[in-house]
Design brief:
The protein has 273 residues and is an alpha+beta fold. Helices cover 45% and strands 12% of the residues. The longest helix has 15 residues. It is globular and about 60 Å long. It starts with 14 loop residues before the first helix and ends in an 8-residue tail after the last helix.
């Protein structure tokens, strides 16, 4: 289910809260109220607002746990991606984990519609550098509402508890600048997982697709602010590992998949030193 634009209650995600909720999801707890979750985790909450519910929804939309809500109680379930993260990086301190969380917030099929819209549509319209006023106007027009951008901004700027360390967004006077993620070879299996997962969502019945479809149908790399050069670099890495095969005899280039995302999942952290 796509979440309300205001699900965040004006809070940015906090990694320490996300880590506590991830841990709780692995413990087979019964359905809990937000107050009970707060008491177990020490994440603050109140009667009408607080950080438990926003961070719980962020965690769900980052794909690190599943949530079912019934009569004011939250049932937390583990899922395969969350289990891998819990085993490899339970406190969410590794850069690769932060990129996993960010990418799932921002990719095309994300329930976090504001993040998805900015990374997949706004950057194509405005480029990677734009005024704060332009961003606000474009977002308000798309959602036909006065959208609160503070949680988005706080997710990436001046907030060590969130995702500022990714250095994805810079503030320059009255402008924002998006900084492309540098391709990191040790993240190869992460890129493979993200590519194949999008492929399975958007073009499940296809085993061969074109380079243009990678960009225009899968939106691969948009959360990383990648252009053609970075996408080509990643595809070459995956080709060398035989995760995909590049057919360079055709124009545009075509890509044949040899793996599925489930086969890659347990390898996400395997190349880290």
């Amino acid at each position: 289910m796509i979440r309300s634009l205001n699900f965040h209650q004006s809070f940015a995600p906090e990694r320490d809260a996300l880590a506590q909720l991830l841990s709780l999801s692995q413990e087979n707890c019964p359905p809990l109220t937000k107050e009970e979750i707060s008491k177990i985790t020490t994440i603050s909450t109140g009667e009408s607002s607080g950080k438990v519910v926003p961070n719980l929804l962020y965690a769900e939309m980052m794909g690190i746990l599943d949530v079912k809500v019934c009569e004011g109680r939250y049932q937390l379930y583990p899922n395969p991606l969350g289990t891998v993260i819990k085993n490899e990086d339970p406190f969410l301190i590794e850069s690769i984990t932060k990129w996993i969380c960010h990418y799932n917030l921002a990719f095309k099929n994300s329930k976090t519609v504001l993040w998805s819209y900015i990374f997949n549509e706004v950057i194509k319209q405005l480029g990677t550098s734009f005024s704060k006023e332009s961003l606000q106007k474009v977002v308000n027009k798309n959602f036909e509402a006065q959208v609160n951008l503070t949680p988005f901004r706080s997710c990436y700027l001046n907030n060590d508890r969130s995702f500022t360390a990714l250095e994805l967004l810079k503030e320059e006077d009255n402008n924002y600048r998006m900084i492309p993620h540098n391709v990191e070879p040790s993240y190869m299996y992460l890129y493979a997982y993200q590519l194949l997962n999008s492929w399975e969502i958007f073009l499940e019945d296809r085993t061969e697709i074109t380079f243009n479809e990678i960009k225009e149908k899968l939106y691969f790399g948009d959360p990383y602010v990648w252009g053609d050069r970075e996408i080509h670099h990643v595809l070459e890495l995956l080709h060398d590992e035989k995760i995909i095969i590049l057919n360079r005899q055709l124009n545009p280039l075509t890509i044949v998949r040899h793996e599925n995302s489930k086969d890659i999942l347990n390898k996400l952290y395997s190349l880290l030193i």
